[in-house]
Specification:
alpha+beta, 22 helices, 22 strands
Length: 822
């Protein structure tokens, strides 16, 4: 580049400083959002994996029935550790307790307690003791830090729990732990605690342990390598072999083997969904950035066409001219990358920390991998440069004659006439349209087609932003519709779960509950955890995590003549017949079974055969497996329901809570062991807690994308006005008042906004459908009409605001200034 061309570059940057600043600002906003998403993806992905692996999670859990005392389990674990391929084996246990509230009633949120031997160093499924020490003394308990707020606890206070035999037992909260291997309590709506087997007699429970936690190597010959296997199939095979060995050697009964997804946190699927959404929206933001930069730089280079002709006329060849404008693009992109660096890093740190906190994790290292920095910088410089290249080559390749003849109106008269005529005819058919207003609208509508490529870019930019915004809001609307649908199908108001300990009281629980004030109807149901056992095997292998919630299945026993359940939609087969035994309806996607197949279910730890009569849609009832009450009695030989479903006279939350508290007291006084008595809103809160990170991610990114869209609209309209400076001068010379010029420019922006709304219709539906069907988000397909209305109003108002400044600048131009403008 020669000294004179370098001087021109500096003067161009100075003379167009307002436009350059606008481009740098718009591009830096987009790059900030994109780089923050990229940084969040890198940090969250790494930190979640590191946090979970830091717990040294068990590869498998073998459940024994019944449990054995600590000494026996320690001996079994020691001999198991000598088996080929076993890295470690430790005995553990687990039980579920209720927590008493300050008013003396049992709370709706249970406490899951993990039990270890007093001498267990907690090297498998580790946790960090933040207050107190391990092991806690007999009668003491450590509480996971995410459970304190849910259960309203403090370190040092006495926690009164309901023991398995129904007695109220105090446990002293001796400390707080951080366990990144567990989902946060607010999502599960249950607390987590840790005790030793020495505290079990305090709870009236024998000091036994019933679970053997195994860490298995990649292969039997790799045991000394201390590398846990990541192959679930290999883990399952090895666990089955160990279970058979345990049965043959020690005569124990294996009830279940739990093998969760190796190296995956319980909420890894949820995090993957969020990160997938982040990347999708990040790519969408990158495309919006590309559209924005292409539109702005195309306008800049188009404006420079007359100057290109002058430079060539005085001897500058195309390569030299290309260097000038290529340098200009590099200045803009490098400035944008530098400007976006600090806020992108800060936003990425904040977003990653918040996202990890939503799934109960604390980021230990917010450092961003160097290659992600390199990718963000490469994208920030390379993509705008690549997209600006066609416009750059087109402008610098213009001949001297074409450049000097350029007037900013490339559209042929025939093309313009076609557009004007069709629009004019449409306006002429409308009654009450002022001819002057019709002419103004006709001119504004025709003007937006002068630069069709730029029009497509502008419309595409706003349409993309609108599609992302409405699809994100529709995701929320679909999930809310899903919750509303669940509430409609859940025709009861209170769930009371009963324990199976103690003698059977004389009066049925349903009759006792029916006498409670505010109760309209009660039904006795049963619900129990189950698993599918392959034919020919005596125990099942499940995906269940240690929290016993993720990856678990349940059987719902339907009472005869129930009015609280609608028959779900069936994909195939038929629904259950009243009094039918040995028949089951499975939810879709649960297993490879078809209607007519026979499967084995674990019922009370025993394999039982069942005929699959139908496959039901799972959207309304989750992953429940349905059987009849007669089938349950035939399989278990018992007819003692463990679940009461109560319909209240008023369906508001205060009534539900009052009835739940009264039912808990009345049933306890009658001799029942009440495990939980809670409003059905608890399960709704748990579902909403699981969806909260997803919804926040989509809505936040939708808002960010919308900001990018409006920045693009403002820059495009500014470029359009600057390009037609001489035209506005001619209009003023012919007597057009300043108000006419302002209205003309504003109308052009409104027409672009309206076209973008039309262009966004199909992409919005497709994007919302894709999110609903391909991301693991429970929800119903919805297009949020309020979101459509909000976006329509916002985009029109935004178009007006975006064009006010350019319109005012155009209306203030004098004839001399306009005609002298290049």
């Amino acid at each position: 580049m020669t000294r004179l061309l370098f001087t021109k570059l500096l003067r161009d940057l100075q003379s167009m400083s307002d436009r350059i600043a606008l481009m740098v600002l718009a591009l830096s906003v987009t790059l900030t959002v994109f780089s923050a998403i990229l940084y969040t993806w890198g940090i969250a992905n790494r930190e979640m994996a590191d946090a979970y692996l830091s717990t040294n999670p068990a590869s498998a859990t073998v459940l024994l029935e019944p449990g054995l005392d600590a000494a026996q389990m320690a001996q079994i674990a020691a001999e198991t550790r000598q088996r080929p391929g076993v890295l470690d084996a430790v005995p553990r246990g687990e039980l579920m307790l209720q927590v008493r509230r300050d008013d003396g009633t049992w709370g709706a949120n249970p406490l899951q307690v993990f039990v270890a031997a007093p001498n267990d160093p907690i090297q498998v499924e580790r946790f960090t003791v933040e207050q107190g020490s391990w092991p806690p003394a007999p009668g003491e308990i450590l509480i996971d830090r995410s459970s304190f707020e849910l259960l309203d606890l403090q370190v040092g206070q006495d926690l009164v729990v309901q023991a398995p035999n129904g007695a109220a037992v105090p446990l002293r909260v001796s400390g707080m732990v951080y366990s990144p291997g567990l989902a946060p309590s607010y999502q599960e709506q249950k607390g987590h605690g840790f005790i030793t087997s020495a505290s079990l007699p305090v709870l009236g429970v024998p000091a036994t342990l019933d679970a053997l936690k195994l860490r298995l190597a990649e292969s039997p010959g790799a045991a000394i390598a201390s590398i846990a296997s990541a192959d679930r199939a290999a883990i399952v095979a090895a666990s089955i072999d160990l279970a058979n060995w345990l049965q043959a050697t020690y005569g124990v009964t294996i009830s279940e083997i739990q093998v969760p997804t190796p190296y995956a946190h319980p909420h890894q699927g949820q995090m993957n969904t969020v990160l997938s959404g982040l990347l999708i929206f990040g790519v969408a933001g990158l495309l919006l950035s590309a559209v924005l930069v292409a539109a702005m730089l195309d306008a800049l280079f188009t404006q420079q066409i007359p100057q290109v002709g002058m430079m060539k006329a005085v001897g500058a060849h195309a390569g030299r001219v290309l260097q000038v404008y290529l340098s200009m693009v590099l200045v803009i992109t490098l400035a944008s990358v530098v400007l976006a660096a600090a806020p992108g890093i800060a936003l990425g740190h904040a977003f990653a920390s918040a996202l990890l906190a939503l799934v109960g994790l604390q980021a230990q290292n917010l450092a961003i991998p160097w290659w992600i920095y390199a990718m963000a910088a490469l994208v920030g410089v390379g993509i705008p440069l690549l997209l600006a290249l066609p416009a750059l080559l087109r402008a610098t390749g213009t001949t001297v004659r074409e450049a000097l003849d350029y007037r900013g109106v490339p559209m042929s008269g025939a093309q313009a006439g076609n557009v004007f005529t069709r629009f004019d005819l449409g306006l002429g058919r409308l009654r009450g349209i002022d001819p002057a207003g019709s002419a103004m609208a006709l001119m504004a509508f025709g003007n937006i087609f002068r630069r069709r490529a730029r029009l497509l870019l502008s419309v595409g930019l706003l349409a993309s932003a609108g599609a992302v915004f409405v699809a994100g809001m529709s995701t929320q609307a679909g999930f809310q519709a899903f919750l509303d649908r669940q509430q409609e199908l859940r025709r009861w108001d209170v769930d009371v779960r009963l324990g199976d300990g103690g003698p059977v009281p004389a009066i049925p629980a349903a009759q006792l509950a029916a006498k409670i004030p505010g109760v309209v109807r009660t039904e006795a149901w049963s619900s129990l955890q189950t698993s599918i056992i392959p034919l020919g095997r005596e125990f099942s292998v499940t995906h269940t995590y240690p929290d016993q919630g993720h990856g678990s299945l349940s059987v719902t026993v339907i009472p005869p003549a129930t009015t609280l359940l609608d028959q779900p939609t069936l994909r195939e087969g038929r629904w259950l017949q009243p009094g039918e035994t040995g028949a089951v309806v499975l939810p879709a996607g649960l297993a490879d079974a078809r209607a007519g197949d026979t499967i084995q279910l674990s019922i009370n730890g025993r394999p039982t055969p069942w005929l699959v009569t139908g496959i039901a849609e799972s959207v309304d009832h989750g992953d429940d497996i349905f059987i009849t009450q007669a089938g349950y009695v035939a399989a278990t030989g018992a007819d003692r329901p463990n679940l009461l479903r109560i319909v209240t006279s008023q369906h508001d939350e205060p009534t539900r809570v009052a009835v739940a508290d009264t039912a808990e007291r009345a049933l306890s006084d009658a001799g029942y062991v009440v495990r939980t008595a809670a409003s059905v809103s608890r399960s709704t809160a748990a579902g909403a807690g699981h969806m909260l990170p997803l919804i926040l991610a989509f809505l936040g990114l939708s808002a960010a994308t919308s900001v990018v869209g409006f920045a693009g609209l403002a820059s495009t309209m500014g470029a359009n006005v600057l390009e037609r400076t001489r035209e506005f001068g001619v209009m003023s010379a012919l007597g057009a008042p300043a108000s006419t010029v302002r209205r003309l420019v504003v109308l052009e922006g409104i027409f672009i906004a309206l076209l973008s709304c039309l262009a966004a219709a199909i992409p919005t539906v497709l994007l919302a459908w894709w999110i609903n069907d391909y991301l693991p988000i429970p929800g119903l397909f919805r297009i949020s009409l309020p979101a459509v209305a909000i976006w329509f109003v916002v985009v029109i108002v935004g178009a007006v605001l975006a064009t006010l400044a350019p319109a005012a600048r155009a209306s203030r131009l004098t004839v001399r200034e306009a005609l002298a403008y290049l």
